[in-house]
Structures are given as structure tokens and as C-alpha cells.
Design brief:
Helices cover 44% and strands 13% of the residues. The chain has 394 residues and is of the alpha/beta class. It has a seven-stranded parallel beta sheet with strand order 3-2-1-4-5-6-7, with helices on both faces. A six-stranded parallel beta sheet has the order 10-9-8-11-12-13, with helices on both faces. Bound molecules: uridine-diphosphate-N-acetylglucosamine.
Length: 394
Amino acid sequence: MSVVGARPNFMKIAPFVHAVNRHNSGEPCRDKPANAQGERRIQHCLVHTGQHYDAAMSEAFFDALDIPRPDVDLGVGSGTHAEQVGQTMMAFEPVARSWRPDWIVIVGDVNATCACSVTAKKERTRLAHIEAGLRSRDLDMPEEINRMVADRLSDLLFTTDDIAGANLRAEGVPEEKICLVGNIMVDTLDAHRPSAEKLNVAEILGQAEVGGRKSEVGGRGSDGEKGYTVLTLHRPSNVDDEGVLRRLVDFLAEEVAGRIPLVWTLHPRTENRLNEFGLMQRVQDAGGICLVPPLGYHELLRLTMDAKVFLTDSGGLQEECCVLGTPCITLRKNTERPVTLREHGGTCELGGNDPDRIRALLDEMLRMERRPHRPPLWDGHTAERIVTELVQRG
Ligand code: UD1
């Protein structure tokens, strides 16, 4: 049984589901000959907790990434953290109890990941965590708490890189539980890159509307920079505090969009906060900002491929920028994904939400060459390694 809840989970579960199907059909894969006679078929059940439920945040990804409809939808929806985690545990318990799977597989670090890890272990089911061992050491991030809980309870920890493995060893996780498999999101990226490449940037932006209004994005900013930058912003630390968000909006409108067109893909949380703090008009009136709703997987991948600089507080996008070679300013003080930073060969730098620091980085990154970087095993075959390991462990 595998579990998803929120948008960043979907690109991680898609390759897993497809690798399970390939295993069952006996298709050969890279590290393994054709399904050996007598090897067990995997009966797989996909559970969606319903943490994300808008079509653009959920269903669109099932369609684009060819994920089958979930076998079980818990329909939990939005709420405070305690409500989300508590309701997910209550709804998941009878499902785990009636299906009695050999393994429950969780991905990433959202509230669904944490809630289902606790329920899985209380139901005495073996638990495997895909994307284990990432640590920001920042307990103000709900995701850090989710990661710690999920990893502490997991019987099998699939890691993306050596730094994640070292984090787990330092926490005393026994060696036999840690399994370096690479980054499963790169499987999705590699599989869908050819389709994304065929899309046209102007068409993607031309179709986008926020609040019934189309935003303009000119060919050049007033300082004449060609190309465009992309922004995604949704962390509570950046959007929930009015002062922080206002300062960021002023900076983005005047100093980023004034220089090079800025495509801003608007998360529902951020849209709510901009409206609540009376900042939406300011964003809509700023020349050079193209506001677009949450984009589909291929559309955002296409924009990322050609962006001069990406500004984001998302963890997954940092990794995608690293693989695509797109210079990325991470709008956070820390990251649980240090392997994507320039000091480790990646393309990302930590900018926090301080305009002075972001300004200096923007100057530098606008001049940076694109430099794709793949840490070991970020090769598009991570899901196969995960399925092989699960089958071997029985
Ligand atoms: C969640 C994850 C975060 C991930 C992000 C990606 C946790 C703790 N956070 O944050 O790690 O990076 O997803 O998006 O699990 N909303 C809608 N429609 C939806 C979903 C949400 O309108 O389909 C609005 C609701 O007002 C909701 C708010 O967005 O209260 C926040 O959603 P929530 O799932 O609580 O957290 P995210 O900020 O999306």
C-alpha cells in the first residue's frame, strides 16, 4: 500500500506505481533481468489522503503523470496541522486494518506522510519511507517534524544521497535499514522531459489567468534583460507574516520584475494571504509580473528548462533546477537538500527572504551559465531499485 496526500507527493509516487506494474508484467528493467519465474506479483493499493483536493493541485497530476485513480480516497482536506494529521490517522486506520498490507510506503514530508507513518506502525505494518534522511534542522518547518517522525518509525529508509544517509547514521539508524536508491523525482523528470520540451512558453503563459484577469509579461524588463525568471512561494515563513510578505512583494515588483519578467505561479495559500493582506492589487498592477495559477507538471517543467533564474521556497523545485542546470535562489534560510547547493556541485544558493541577499544573488545568477548536475543514482531508475528491494525483503 502506498500513500499520497499533497502535490509534491504525486511526482514521487508515479514512478513507483509504474515500476510495480512493470514488475508484475515481467518486463525487464535496467538492473534486473526479466521477472524471474516464481517471483511474487505485487498487489498494490494506492491511498490518497485528500490533503490537496483542488483539480489543479491534485487531479491534474494524476492525469499528466498517468497515475491510476486512487483505490482509496480519505477526503481529509484542509485544516490546522492537528486537524489534518488527526483526521488522516482516523481515516487511515480502518483502511490499513482491513487491507493488512505487507508494506506501507510513504513519500516525502507532508502531513499525510507523518500521519500515515504513525498509523502504519500502530497497526504493526512494516513501513518504508521514500526520500528518507533529509534534514533542515529547522523545527519551525512542519515538514522537518514530519520527516523525523516518518524516519524514526520506518523499517526501510530509501535515501536520495550520501548526506541523507549520514544524517540517519548519526541518529543511530541501523545500517541494514538504509538503502541509497537516488532521487525518484528524477525518474518522473526524465520520463516527461520530451513531452515538456514540445510545449511553447508563450502559449503556457497566454492561457493563464488569475482571478479572471490575465497578466502581461513583456519581452524584456525595463533594464533590458532577455528571458524570464520564475517564482513559487508558499512556505508559512514567507507568506503567513504580513510584514515579510509585503517586503518580498515590494522587492519582487520593483527590483526583480522591473529588471526581467517574472512569472509567478500562485499557490492557493499565497493567493489567500495576498488577498487577506490587501497585496493582490499591488502584484497585479506591477509591470513585468505574470501571475499564473498552479501549473501542470509539464507546463512548469517547460518554464524551468528555460528560466534564467528560478526563485522558490519549494524543496522539489530546487532538485529539478539542479538536474536541469537552472540557477536557483532558494527563498529559505536553510535546506534539507544541501546536495543541490553550488558548494556540492548544484545550482542553488540560499537567499532566505532578505532582499539584500536576494539582490546580490540575482545579480550573480543572471550571469551564471546553465550547469546541469546529477548526484550519483539520480539516473531515472530509482523506482526500479525500490521495487526490487521491497520484493527481496518479502
Ligand atoms: C503542503 C505541505 C508542503 C508542500 C506543499 C506543496 C505540509 C505540512 N505541507 O503545504 O510541505 O510543500 O503542500 O503545495 O504537509 N488549499 C486549497 N486547495 C488545495 C490545497 C490547499 O485551496 O487543494 C489551500 C487551503 O486554504 C489550505 C492551504 O492551501 O489551508 C494550505 O494547504 P496545506 O495542505 O495545509 O499546506 P500547503 O501550504 O499546501
